[in-house]
Amino acid sequence: MGLRVTFELDEDDLKHFRLIMRQARTAATRIAPEEIVAAAEELLASNASKGSPAFIAERLQKLRLLIDMLSDIEWRLPQREADRVLNALAYFAEPEDLIPDHIPGLGFLDDAIMIELICRELKHEIEAYQDFCDFRRRVRRDSGRSIRVSRDHWLENRRKALQS
Known about the structure:
Helix 3 packs across helix 5. The protein has helices at residues 11-28, 33-50, 54-71, 79-89, 109-121, 123-143, 151-163. The N and C termini lie far apart (53 Å). 68% of the residues lie in helices and 0% in strands.
């Protein structure tokens, strides 16, 4: 038998998490982008070996999407947007968590909350990337081969769709 626990973060709680995120972003200016991404990858890897509640697992899938957005050569995230994603991922490069990751069942809760805040902040970029990935899958499926699909190709297709 499972146990369902729900909670609501009020505006003061969210302010606290946003403050921590800002502090992590400031600290991230001293960290190489590769290290930030590696820290986020490490979080995913450590979670995969431990398993987590569904709420946390769902947020970690979103973290994978953010990492993919940064590394997708065909997407080529503009520098300004890439910087925003890196800044958002900076929290995971900090060795000190609000809740230590080794605590069973709860250790990744603060990470999941941060991921949710990041995804809200980057909602439009994430939606655009997901649309691009869907478009790329359709183009490759329809062509019957793995062809290169660029961000420009996707944008051109979006323009045509909007104009028609």
